[in-house]
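[SOLVED] Need 3D model of a two-part complex

Original post:
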Amino acid sequence: MKSLKTNKKISVIGPILGAALLAGGLLLALQASRPTPVYAHEVPSPCDFTTGGGFILIAPGTASSPLAETGHKANFGLVGGCKNGGFFGHVNYVDHNNGLHVSSDTITAYVNPCPGCSLPPAANNARDICGTADVSINGSPVPGTWGFRVRTIDAEQQSSPPPKDKFGIHIHSLDSSGNAGNTAYLVPTRCLASNSPTGTVMTCSATNPGGGDIELHKHNRSNTGPSLTEDQISARCGANDLGY
Amino acid sequence: MGQTKHGRSGLVLVAVLMAGLLALPSTGLAQLGGLLPPPPTSTSTTPTVVGNASAAQVVLLGLLGTATSTSLASTGISSANAESDVGQDTGSIPSLLGAEVLNAATYSYPDQVDSAVSLANLNMSVAGIGIYADSVVAEASQVLGAAGSGTSYIDNLSINGMPVAVTGAPNQTIWVPGGQVIINEQTISSTGTAVVNALHVAITGVADVVIASATAGIS
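Solution:
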């Protein structure tokens, strides 16, 4: 197993995450103030697939968007993976802090964001599902073309007693070529039912009452997906890493 | 309507019947793999596959014995090496239930079938009995030649406003006026097909409602 140190590491120093137009002409500016490590991503080979559903909590100050963060739930349901040379799946996400709905059945990438990683815990069970999405707030479609990256971590397979599974999401604009642009909404990865990001080592094993489940299903030679370069993955998934 | 009348008369009774079964909100988890002997290995080169996942399956019974069936976020496959999935931000059956992020998928390999289904913010009223859960998940899997297995997860389940302690055991049953609620209902067929229903509400003469049902079979 490769350690984290052997993975490609890139520093994305950004005063930018940019501005994006959300509902009703709302101007969204999100700024990254410190370097963000981004590790090599790859389509699993042989590939696998992930299913999940549940909820997280978003306490004030634990996400990045111009939308309200009030400690309420955000619910999600998802499927992503490879089959017959392509990607498949869907993502549905409803944030009750602000009425945001994200709905997608167009999956453009399914990747392991930390292949071979033994740390952070369960990182090798992380899978990112990326695609294009319809975005609305309180039922009103948000103008523009939007993409997303969802991070799932099936942490329960890694330890005994099992830690909680994890989920994170960001939404970004897409240019006319379908390449990821500015981030409009970012909820760093956190344990299911948790209200704060996990950082790099937190397993949330004792602090959360539940919140659903994420299941990383086994790989198999029948699970074949496209081969994507790192650049292609970044274009489809956006530059922001979501943490573990 | 009979449903409303039935529920009103049963509120107090439900509380009494469930008094010994209720506790703080909890998460339910149970597995039923390996409790039954493995089915015989198929001798056919083309396996028989069944994969189904459904967020809600509802049968409403009418006064004259009629039955009306409805489902939400339902999908299925019947061959190896196939995949099908469906998702919805919200879903509802008027006057019966509403839920969010309904999600169902079933996936087959040459020698395995996996099915999974989930939904959140379940808010249901059957014959006046209110049922709520923050999150409901069911998963089922069968590997060719072995008995299937299944798991369900239910977070913060309440019935008529009272928290229900989900034990994690298969087929936990709570009696309610006119019927029952089965939590983590699991069955394994003679060929090893696993059926997992996270919640099954059956009210005699009124309705049969299954929330989060996952089926996986290959033989």
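Edit: The first strand of chain A starts at residue 9 and ends at 12.
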